[in-house]
């Protein structure tokens, strides 16, 4: 249930793991509405009301993103939905993209990598050079994902993501909202405290379209050459860049200049 603010509100002392109220400059009532206990729709609505400026939700059409998109679109919230088309996605991801647009009567704007940057990278490392070293893989992610993300978020006041704290050990500190100093905006994770099972049950109950790869063991879906189905007992993100030995595997969208995950809590 939505939490209402009562009287003077000191966000810095009363809201743990919340947005830095100085950096984000959010109204106290909006911050109060974002604390634990609110539904996804309430969290998204409160953010839209509290944050002055453009809110952008980046979807990869995964399970979590489909649930968030469902609430944004059915509630008709003023949050832009965009996607990063790397050019290497699964065919089923493109099919789901079309199905989602038709289901909700929208067009989801896509951001693509710079053609010259892709050509230069392929000329240097080869079409699948990312298998050869982690540096090559990160370079590919930078060209195909991080650079387009920068254009998608240019001028945005807030970035909505589908991150969950239990997706991996690297993401364990993800909380509801934070000031992202790297991009100078508020970063929101409305599903930060949800489990995958809870997301899956909600998606099924609401009849939200999902990628059929999920039922085949692809719990985390990215680019086709960099994603495989999980083996029994493997953690949720083990199928991403599986040839790398480093367990802290991220594409760069959610890490800072130091290569570490940008924590979704105030310093």
Strand order of the largest sheet: 3-2-1-4-6-5
Calculate the terminal CA-CA distance, rounded to whole Å: 27 Å
Query: What structural class is derived from the secondary structure elements?
Result: alpha/beta
Overall pLDDT metric: 83
Strand residue percentage: 5-15%
| CA-based gyration radius | 18 Å
Strand runs, count: 6
Could you give a short account of the major beta sheet?
Answer: 6 strands, mixed
Q: Roughly how much helix do the residues carry, as a percent range?
A: 25-40%
Order of helices and strands: HHHHEHEHEHHEEEH
Low-confidence stretches: 1-25, 254-267
The shape is: globular
Instruction: Give the helix tally.
Output: 9
Description:
The chain is of the alpha/beta class and 267 residues long. Helix content is 34%, strand content 9%. The chain contains 9 helices and 6 strands, in the order ααααβαβαβααβββα. The chain has helices spanning 11-14, 21-24, 28-33, 40-50, 63-74, 91-104, 115-125, 134-152, 196-206; strands at residues 55-59, 80-84, 109-111, 158-160, 177-180, 185-188. A 6-stranded mixed sheet has the order 3-2-1-4-6-5. Helix 5 links the parallel strand 1 and strand 2 (80-84). It is globular and about 45 Å long. Residues 1-25 and 254-267 have low confidence and may be disordered.
